[in-house]
Amino acid sequence: MSDVRDEAADDRAEAQAFRELLRGLRVPHGAELPVFDPARAPGAPLPLFRRWLREAAEGGEPGPHTMMLATAGADGRPSLRTVMLHDADARGWHFGTHRTSRKGRELAEHPYASLGFHWMLPGRQVRISGRVTEAGAEASAADLRGRSPAALAAALAGAGRQSAVLGSYEELERAFADARQRAGREPDATAPTWTLYVLEPDEVEFYQEEARRRHVRLRYRRAPEERGGWRRELLWP
Ligand SMILES: Cc1cc2nc3c(=O)[nH]c(=O)nc-3n(C[C@H](O)[C@H](O)[C@H](O)COP(=O)(O)O)c2cc1C
């Protein structure tokens, strides 16, 4: 009986310590947050995004090209994971993955997604939403060719299997050993399910933190009737 009581007391103490930990945590910022004047922002989101990513990289933000990718399949339930940004150009934001993965299947069912970047040091966040299309077999193969041997090996190992239930780590080890050998022998090998996707944004939102929490939010919405094709709006933070 007293053991049960002790356990309950331990659980409560642990829950309390956890809450205190959360309350004590702070988001690390650089020495000074940049000032973002939305009145001077460009007419389209791409140049601003590229500038913010460059500034994050130059300011020492770790992995500024990693982003959260949110998708939802036919059941409408969202799912989220980290992927790398491979490019951002006039066509959209590019990322690579397996078409047979959970995200690939969800994109086939519902070809819309949202991307999220959070750069802590400059206190910035960017959200990008829109329709996602496959860039095609040639572009997907080129995407894989442009990556490191380790990335090629991982893509070969995961082809057709990423997101499936794994039977054992021995199975994974064997698949990786084979894939590493193959990537060494055939640097131009293609992973049949590897797909380059392009998200063509219809909405891009930039968020700049401000020291007194009077944060700045600037949303670009695609508006063909506007000069430059985008409407800019401020949002309540
Ligand atoms: C920093 C980081 C970068 C990643 N980049 C990719 C990527 O570019 N492509 C990819 O398929 N998975 C990437 N992953 C793995 C995904 O987050 C995810 O676990 C995997 O793609 C399976 O996702 P799914 O089951 O939702 O389809 C990355 C993970 C991390 C932590």
Describe the structure in your own words:
By secondary structure, the protein is an alpha+beta fold. 34% of the residues lie in helices and 30% in strands. The protein contains six helices and nine strands. The protein has helices at residues 2-24, 45-58, 102-109, 137-145, 149-158, 169-185; strands at residues 66-72, 78-84, 87-89, 92-98, 112-119, 124-134, 194-208, 216-222, 230-235. Strands 1, 2, 3, 4, 5, 6, 7, 8 and 9 form a nine-stranded antiparallel beta sheet that branches. A hairpin with a 7-residue loop joins strand 7 (194-208) and strand 8 (216-222). The radius of gyration is 22 Å and the shape is globular.
Characteristic terms for this protein:
237 residues, binds flavin mononucleotide, alpha+beta
The profile of the biggest β sheet is: 9 strands, antiparallel
Please give the number of β-strands: 9
**Rg on CA atoms, Å:** 22 Å
How much of the sequence lies in strands comes to 25-35%
Distance between the termini: 51 Å
Tell me which ligands are bound.
flavin mononucleotide
Which whole number gives the mean pLDDT?
95
How are helices and strands ordered from N to C?
HHEEEEHEEHHHEEE
Helix fraction by DSSP (H/I, runs of at least 4):
25-40%
Unreliable spans are none
- Please work out how many helical segments DSSP would assign: 6
User: What structural class should be given to the helix and strand makeup?
Assistant: alpha+beta
Shape label? globular
